[in-house]
Every structure is written in C-alpha cells, then in structure tokens.
Design a protein that fits this description.
The complex is a heterodimer of chains A (62) and B (717). Chain A is mainly α and 62 residues long. Chain A has helices spanning 3-27, 36-40, 45-49. Chain A is 56% helix and 0% strand. Chain B has helices at 13-39, 54-86, 93-113, 129-151, 160-179, 196-231, 238-252, 267-279, 281-293, 299-304, 306-329, 331-337, 341-370, 378-411, 424-462, 483-493, 495-523, 536-547, 562-568, 603-611, 613-616, 627-630, 638-647, 660-678, 688-698; strands at 6-11, 182-184, 190-192, 468-473. Classes of the chains: A mainly alpha (62), B mainly alpha (717). At the A-B interface, helix 1, helix 2 and helix 3 of A face helix 5, helix 6, helix 7, strand 4 and helix 17 of B.
C-alpha cells in the first residue's frame, strides 16, 4: 500500500498550497470586506461602456 | 481617482466559441449515452459492430459528457466571468485559442480512439497516453492564461468564483498527472504503472476528485457568478460562500476511498474515506442553501425567467447529490448500493440536474448578452425546462428502482439459507423494463437540449454579435504599492516565464515517471506465493478484455459478504492482483462478477457464449462478440507488451519475450483448441477468441485448486 504515501503527499501538497493561499488571502485583506464584493459584480458590462461609471471598486453601487 | 482609468476590451469571441462547442458536444455526448442505454434492453442495437458496442461507447459517453459538454461549459463560463471579475481581458489571446482548439482536438481524438478500443480502462481516465500528454499541455496553457489574468487584474478583491476556478485548475493538474502514469508499449497503448490494489486506490482518488474538481468546483464558481447576475441581486451570504469554498477544498480530496468500500483496500483507508465524505455534507449544503436563499423574495422572477428555473433545479440537484453521496459512502448503505444502478442514478442526478441544468441556465443568459438582444423565445425555453425535467425524472427514478431491486435480489436468501436468485440473469431481467423507461427519459432530455440549440440559434440570428465589450477601470497599481507586482507582471508577459512554467511541469512529470515505478516495484512483492504472472496468451486475452470494455458490466472483485461468496466463490484478496496492470475491479455489474470465472465453464461454453450470449443464456442482455471469432490475434506486438509489463514490475525472465514467449503462446493456444474440440467446437488457434478464453479461464484460479469444469448446462448465467 506504499502508493498511499504518494497520494497522501500529493493531496497534502495541494492542501498546503491552499493553506498558504488562504493565509495570503486573509493577511492581504481579501476578506476584510465581506459585503460589497457580492454587490460589485452585479452592474452590467453595458454600463461599463459609459465611461461615467468606471466601476471603481468602492465607488459603485455599495 | 479617475485620472489613470484604462480602457480595455473583453474577449467575447472565445466565449462564443466555447459556448457553441458546449452545445454541439452536449448533443453528441447525450446521444451516445442514449445509444448505450438502448443496448441495455436491445443488445442488437450495436448492429454487430465493435465500434458502437456498449463496452466501447460507455467510456465515450462518460468522456464526452464530462470533458466535452461540461468541460466546454466550464470554459465558457470561466472565460466570460473571469474577465469581468478581474476587470481585464484574458492574459493571452493566443493561449485562449490554444486552449480552445487543443481541447476540441483532444475531444475528437477521444471520439476516434475510444470506439477503436484504445482505452486504459480507468474510469474517466480512459484516454491513452498521447492524449494524456496533450491534456496536460492544454491544461497548463489554461492555467497560465488564468493566473496571468489574475496578475493583471484591475480589481483588488478576488470574488469567490475565482477561488473555485483556481481550485479546479490546480487540483485537476495534480490528479491527472498522478493517475496517468503509464508505460507505453505502442503508439496508442500503455499499461498502468500501478498494479492491483494500488492502481485501484490511485484511480478512485482520481475518480472521486475528478467529480469534485471538474464537475463540482468550477460549476460552483459559475453558480456564484451567474445566479446573482441573472437574479440581479447579491448572493445571500458572501461570508458563507467563502466558508463554503475553504471547507470544501480542505475536505474533498480525502474522500476518494469511499469508492472502494468492502474491497481489498485496507480497512482504515475505507473508514477515513467514509468519515470525510460525511463531513462534506456541511459545506455542500451550506453552498446549496446559499444559492437557493439568494432567490428569497424573488420567487416571482423564477416564475417568469426560464434561466432562473433551470438554476433552481440545478442547485437543488446539487443538494440532492451531495446528500446522497455521503449517504452512499456509509459502509452499510454501500454494501447494498455498490455495483448496482443506484450509483448510476446518483451520477445522473449530478450530471443531468446539476451540470446539465446549470449549463442550460448559463447559456440562456449568455447568448442574449453576447448578441445584445433578447432571448428569441421564452416560451420555447420553458418547454425545454419542463421536457428536460420530465426526462430527468423518467431517467433517474426508474434507475433508482432498478438499483435497489438489484441490490436486494443479489442479497436475498431463502429460509433454508440458499441464494433466492442464484442465477444472476434473473436479477438483470427483472430490471430491464426500468432500462426502457430510462431510455425514454434520456430521449426527452436530448429533445429539450435540441430545443435549446434551436432557440439559441434564433437568438443569435436576431441579434448582433459583439466580439469585444469595451470596459474601463483603473489599474490595480494605483491602489497598492505594488512595484514588485508590476515587475512580476512584466515578467509574466515575457515568454521566459511561460517557458519556465512549462519546464517545471516537464521536470515534475519526468521526476514522477522516474521515481514512482522504482519505488512501487520494490514494494510490489507478491504476498501470495501461488499467484503468478499471466501467460503470454492470457496477457493478449486480458488486453482484448480491456479493449472491448468488458469491465463496463463485469466486476472482478468479490466482496466479503456471504451473498457474494455463495454466488461467486472465495472473496478477493489484495495479493491476487499484484500483476494486474491496470486493475479491472470495475464499478458496476450488469453481468456477474468474473473474479473467479476460471474453470467455471468449459472452453466451448465461452466460445458459444461470445458468439451469441443468448444461445447459452436465454434472455441475456450481453452483446454478441462474434468478431472475436474471426479477428486474428496480433502476436507481433507480444514482445513489446511483455517488455512494458516487465518495466512496471512483472517478473518475466530476461529475454523471455524474444522467443520462448511465442512458443508458450502457441502451445497454450493449441491446448485451448483441443479443449474446444472436446466441446464440439472447431476453431483456429490464431484467433482473438482463443486468447480471451485463456484469460477468462485463468481468472481467480491462482488461489484455488483447479476445479473440474462445470456441466455445460449451468444455472449460473
């Protein structure tokens, strides 16, 4: 059953990679705002044609 | 703030290309599935052609639906949403189109090689080694394109959907490379580097996670993007969506062993797989509720908008499948469900409901966007919804009934302790009416898909395609002190980085190829002294067994239950499989298990049974394999096969393949011909059927004394 070591190593390296990216996400402030990101995806792309609302992250729709 | 706003264009051409491929391959994949379904109650529907016989087109159906339909659907959604979520065009147009044409080429080569019988036999990884390499290259191109887009994004926050895409890209790459370790022996054929139990474990670690990271995570990303867009309201709880993602990622990858409960896999690995499967209910249902609750207070929109109707069914099907999956992972439930049609019903709840309906929903929303128009006919889309929903019900419900019926009949004992249904055929004949209903359901589902294709075609006709959407946003660099990032950006845009990534992948693959066989072969010491490698003729027969996809219906793994040992003989031991490259345990039984088939019937019975199964077993749903009786055995390739097997650890003596092997093969073949003569069958010794009979007669005989052949009139099948 030595192959299980290979699988555990492969799975662990994936898990560690995601753990690191999780820590990065939290530290870099990705999750400080858990409200507006859900809203900011809503404005239609057609609106983006009008240069008036350049969809600045914090200026639109929040 | 607006001083350095940049103007850029989203690439819609690539989205349209993938969307059209999704529709075309969807219809193709579903139709192949229907052809397979019809053969289950009308075996002659294969027209006696090897290329369209169940065993060969079952993998074609699964591959077409998973990698061609859902795969293209995934790329459609990712290429559309990623650009908009990142406020950036895709990193490289070249890579986008390389991804597109590469993927279509892989699909076409699958559609050619699988019917021709070039298969590794490992489920959802049936494609042979050159195509495996192509998949790796195209996937790396996709990964570079995705990460490149992330680096040049103009939106600081990475929306939760992007995280689901990242999980898909990274994990599928690892899974694919580890599971595809194989030793080529010809331009299109190879043997798995892993043997027996090890191969089974790697395969189902892959198989489970392919479902998780190809059919689930990318589509969850699409759900988190397209559902709020279509409903025009934010997701119920963004915080919950973040928890959903991270919990899912850390749990999913450990649940694979639940596909091997009660097999020869060590018990602790089985229990671990079951435990993690049960834990998965929490994030899965969190995500499902998050999707459904997004529509709270907007159910009036669901009534009017077919796109939301499809989405609601998709998310509900996700909830059903992710509750059922853990339930099936409970060992006592699995003892009933495994090998039955229950598994197939479960898979189709996910495929038809979750992936299918979510794809339809996305396409109905996307086409009007891309063509700057309205959906041509809402009414027709509603017809599609109800026809396909009805089709889904007619598909899934009968197959559930069939699965439970099979499981119960296999386990039923009489008062006196004998099997109630000792003849396997009785149990399959019982569910044939269910197979008919399921084909009806599948037909309805395809009909719905065709209605969609027509509706979207008319939608496209009525609008004006917008190849590029102009958008504006300020670059990220103005927000953050990102001098390092800019450098990285520049670096990435240059070719060196692309080639660095490619060479790292190449080195990794090379390293794994070198290390794994050495490591495994040392460990692969036979634990049962009487288990010997297959003879040359048996190797040839085994490869025919693989080519014809016999494992689509026959398992080779007797579980330690009295109902199975009574029916099939001594339960299977892991030590019996040490020379099996690849393992052939299979995952469903439309016919009896073959792990101890050797010596059960005389050679003549097998000959007649292959020519026409209904001549020996009236009512059997097995296809005829009459071409095996006439096709000559390809003995020229024997040395290459044996050499490859030796390289992966089967102890054939040095030089054996250069002469002695052919002699042994000829001798064994003439013995089979002699046996056939006793059964009043005349056959030439250089036909494929001879090799297949030799292989079948070998199965399971290593650890039991050679039994006397059973009488020709058998009650078994």
């Amino acid at each position: 059953m030595s192959v299980i070591l290979i699988l555990i190593l492969a799975s662990l390296s994936v898990a560690v990679a995601f753990l690191i990216s999780f820590i990065w996400a939290v530290r870099s402030g990705q999750y400080e705002d858990t409200c507006t990101p859900a809203l900011r995806i809503l404005p239609d792309d057609a609106a983006e044609k009008n240069s008036a609302s350049g969809s600045k992250p914090k200026s639109s729709n929040s | 703030m607006n001083t350095n706003v940049e103007t850029f264009k989203y690439d819609n051409r690539i989205v349209r290309a993938f969307a059209m491929a999704t529709i075309v391959w969807g219809v193709v994949g579903m139709s192949v599935g229907l052809l397979a379904a019809v053969q289950l109650f009308f075996p002659d529907a294969n027209l006696n052609l090897p290329f369209i016989t169940f065993g060969r087109i079952r993998p074609l159906h699964t591959n077409a639906v998973i990698f061609a339909f859902v795969g293209n659907g995934m790329f459609t959604g990712i290429y559309y949403s990623l650009q908009r979520l990142c406020k950036a065009r895709m990193f490289s147009d070249f890579l986008s189109w390389f991804n597109f044409w590469g993927w279509q080429l892989i699909i076409v080569s699958a559609a050619l090689t699988l019917p021709l019988g070039f298969t590794t036999s490992k489920e959802y990884a049936e494609l042979e080694w050159p195509i495996d390499i192509a998949i790796t290259v195209v996937w790396v191109a996709f990964a570079v394109n995705l990460f490149g887009t992330l680096v040049k994004r103009r939106e600081q926050h990475m929306y939760v959907a992007i995280w689901f895409y990242i999980a898909t890209v990274v994990t599928i790459a690892v899974l694919h490379i580890v599971n595809s370790m194989e030793m080529p022996w010809s331009a299109l054929k190879s043997y798995s580097m892993y043997a027996g139990v090890q191969d089974a474990l790697v395969q189902w670690w892959y198989g489970h996670n392919a479902v998780a990271f190809f059919l689930t995570t990318p589509y969850l990303g699409l759900m988190y993007y397209f559902l709020p867009k279509a409903a025009n309201r934010p997701v119920f709880s963004y915080r919950l969506s973040i928890i959903h993602f991270w919990a899912l990622i850390f749990l999913y990858i450990w649940a694979g062993p639940h596909h091997l409960l009660y097999t020869a896999l060590p018990d602790w690995a089985q229990s671990l797989g079951m435990l993690f499967s049960l834990m998965l209910i929490a994030p899965s249902w969190g995500g499902m509720l998050n999707g459904l609750l997004t529509l709270r207070g907007a159910w009036d929109k669901v009534r009017q908008d077919p796109m939301l109707k499809f989405m609601v069914v998709a998310v509900t099907a996700y909830g059903m499948a992710t509750l059922e999956g853990p339930a099936l992972s409970i060992k006592s439930v699995n003892s009933l469900s495994h090998y039955t049609d229950w598994t197939i019903a479960h898979a189709h709840t996910g495929a038809l409901g979750w992936n299918g309906f979510l794809t339809f929903s996305m396409l109905y929303w996307l086409f009007p966007q891309l063509y700057r128009t309205k959906l041509w006919s809402v009414k027709l889309a509603n017809y599609h919804f109800w026809i396909s929903l009805l089709g889904m019900m007619f598909y899934i419900v009968p197959i559930y009934v069939a699965g439970v019926t099979e499981g119960l009949m296999w386990k039923q004992f009489t008062k006196d302790g004998f099997l109630q249904y000792p003849n396997f055929l009785e149990t399959i004949v019982q569910v044939v009416p269910m197979f008919r209903l399921r084909a009806l359901g599948g037909t309805l589902y395809i009909l719905g898909t065709l209605l969609m294709a027509y509706n979207l075609y008319r939608t496209a006709k009525s609008g004006q395609f917008e190849p590029e959407t102009v958008a504006q946003a300020a670059p990220l660099a103005s927000h953050a002190p990102a001098s390092g990032k800019i450098k990285f950006h520049r670096l990435l845009e240059g070719k060196p980085l692309f080639f660095t990534v490619l060479s790292i992948v190449a080195i990794l693959v090379g390293g794994i190829v070198e290390i794994i066989p050495m490591y495994l072969i040392k460990e692969n010491v036979p634990t049962i002294a009487s288990v010997k490698p297959y003879t040359p003729l048996e190797v040839m027969g085994r490869d025919i067994y693989i080519r014809e996809g016999c494992l689509g219906c026959h398992s080779q793994m007797i579980r330690p239950f009295r109902s199975e040992t009574e029916r099939y003989g001594e339960y299977s031991k892991s030590g019996e499989y040490v020379y099996d490259h690849p393992f052939l345990w299979a995952s469903e039984r439309k016919g009896p298990d073959l792990a101890r088939e050797g010596g059960r019937y005389p050679d003549g019975w097998h000959f007649n049974h292959m020519d026409d199964p209904r001549s020996t077993s009236p009512g059997s749903i097995m296809p005829r394999y009459s071409w095996l009786l006439t096709q000559p055995l390809d003995t020229n390739s024997l040395p290459a096969r044996l050499k490859a097997l030796r390289k992966v650890g089967v102890p054939y003596p040095d030089g054996y393949e250069n002469g002695p092997a052919q002699k042994d093969l000829a001798a064994q073949a003439s013995r089979v011909v002699q046996n056939l003569k006793q059964g009043a069958v005349t056959a030439e010794s250089d036909r494929e059927i001879i090799a297949l009979i030799a292989y079948l007669q070998r199965l399971g005989t290593d650890i039991k004394p050679a039994p006397a052949p059973a009488p020709a009139t058998s009650t078994f099948e």
